[in-house]
Amino acid sequence: MTQERTGVATFKSSPITLVGPKLTAGDPAPDFVLSKNLLEEVSLSDYAGKIKLISVVPSLDTGVCDAQTRRFNSEAAELGDDVVILTVSMDLPFAQARWCGAAGIDRVITLSDHKAASFGQAYGVLIKEFRLDMRSIFVLDKNNKLTYVEYLSEMTEHPNYEDAIAAVKSLL
């Protein structure tokens, strides 16, 4: 049975239910299968040997998600080749590609959880009521151990960009 957590997060002050476990720093990062494009799927092992910042957004076509992805795209240049920034959403892969092209996003890899919601369920961010992934940040070291986890309590708020980037830099 899949774990559900009610009352830990809201959307515009209304409670929402998150499906999956609540992960903490020190936990091993769960594997996932995400769509890189319509035909290609990726998993955690595709980013082996890299420090990973996983930025989860409900949909790139909303203001906060747009700003969050642009912010991490601009930060990526200063982090070097040992770091990969992945943005995960339920948006379809071709919608992600369209958005990235229009926004000039070239350093962040967008990945779609739309097929099976395996990321959302494994990382405890799948919103039962909307079938979207809740805004959150995960930093994984090169051995796929979680070193930083931020679950936002309100879907429309921004994450703590400075703390997330500091967590990545501490691993360099």
From TrEMBL:
Recorded GO MF terms: peroxidase activity
Limits of the Thioredoxin domain: 23-172
Alphabetical UniProt keywords: Antioxidant, Disulfide bond, Oxidoreductase, Peroxidase, Redox-active center
EC number: 1.11.1.24
Entry annotation: catalytic residues: 65 (cysteine sulfenic acid (-soh) intermediate)
CDD domains, alphabetized: PRX_Atyp2cys
Catalytic activity: a hydroperoxide + [thioredoxin]-dithiol = an alcohol + [thioredoxin]-disulfide + H2O
Keyword Amino-acid biosynthesis attached: no
Function comment: Thiol-specific peroxidase that catalyzes the reduction of hydrogen peroxide and organic hydroperoxides to water and alcohols, respectively. Plays a role in cell protection against oxidative stress by detoxifying peroxides.
HAMAP family per UniProt: Tpx
NCBIfam families to which the protein is assigned, alphabetical: PRK00522.1
Subunit structure comment from the entry: Homodimer.
Family of this protein: Belongs to the peroxiredoxin family. Tpx subfamily.
Name of the protein: Thiol peroxidase
UniProt gene name: tpx
